[in-house]
Every structure is written in structure tokens, then in C-alpha cells.
Specification:
It contains 3 helices and 6 strands; from the N terminus they run H-H-E-E-H-E-E-E-E. With about 130 residues, it is α+β, with helices and mostly antiparallel strands. The chain starts with a helix and ends with a strand.
């Protein structure tokens, strides 16, 4: 049986993989992080909820296509484990270049991972802007 620390390390690795896929604009890596279940949900800042991998993947493709450059630094505020679910509260510090303009933003996000077939998959991401 795995210890809580080992499980947290696996969840943190899955969370890091999500943000590296995001930062590198890597659709294949993003696809490997997300659950393909119909219950998966993604809420980008200021947007409606997207359900299921098909809708979610289209949104990431659009973000990647419209962003020339991106850097993301995160701070984990909280991580909780409950059975086969883990949730993280994360502060996202994002630097983007969109249409030649440099944009900096801070968001707070909730990322929920589910243990499926021995691997942690992202099943929910909700980002909200932090207003200055």
C-alpha cells in the first residue's frame, strides 16, 4: 500500500505535467493528462463550462493556436486526498505573448485528479482571474 506522501508526489507530478503541457502548447501531452470521460470539466477564466474531452481539447487547441509564447509558474496552496480523488488549489502566474502583445495574468485554479487504472488523470480544471 502506498503512503500518503507517495500518492501526493504522484498527484503533484500529474499536476506538473498538466502545466508543462499548457506552457509548451503540447496537445499530445495535454491529451495524456486529461481523463477522456464524459464527466471531465474545464472552465477557463471568464468562459462557460466545457464537458468531455472533445470540447475540452478544442478549447486547448484554440488557446495554443492563438498564443505565440507562454510561461507559467505555479504555487500550490493546498492539496487534499480523498480515496481515488485529489484536489489542488493553485495560484497560476502566466506570461503570454498574444498578437505581439505581452500579457501577464494571475489566476487561482482548482485542479481535480482521479486515479483511473493506476494513473492520476485530470478530471476538472477551473481557473478564475485574480483581480489586481
Amino acid at each position: 500500500m502506498q503512503t500518503n506522501q507517495t500518492i501526493k508526489s504522484e498527484v503533484l507530478a500529474a499536476n506538473t505535467a498538466f502545466y508543462r503541457a499548457f506552457e509548451k502548447k503540447d496537445m499530445e501531452a495535454m491529451s495524456n493528462v486529461w481523463s477522456k470521460g464524459t464527466g471531465s470539466c474545464c472552465i477557463h477564466p471568464g468562459r462557460d463550462a466545457l464537458r468531455g474531452w472533445q470540447e475540452i481539447s478544442i478549447s486547448w487547441e484554440q488557446i495554443f493556436k492563438n498564443t505565440a509564447y507562454m510561461e507559467i509558474n505555479t504555487d500550490i496552496l493546498n492539496i487534499e486526498l480523498v480515496d481515488n480523488l485529489a484536489y489542488l488549489i493553485v495560484t497560476e502566474n502566466i506570461l503570454q505573448v498574444v498578437r505581439g502583445k505581452r500579457l501577464e495574468a494571475r489566476s487561482i485554479a482548482t485542479n481535480i485528479f482521479q486515479l483511473l487504472g493506476g494513473k492520476w488523470y485530470l478530471v476538472h480544471h477551473h481557473g478564475s482571474p485574480i483581480m489586481r
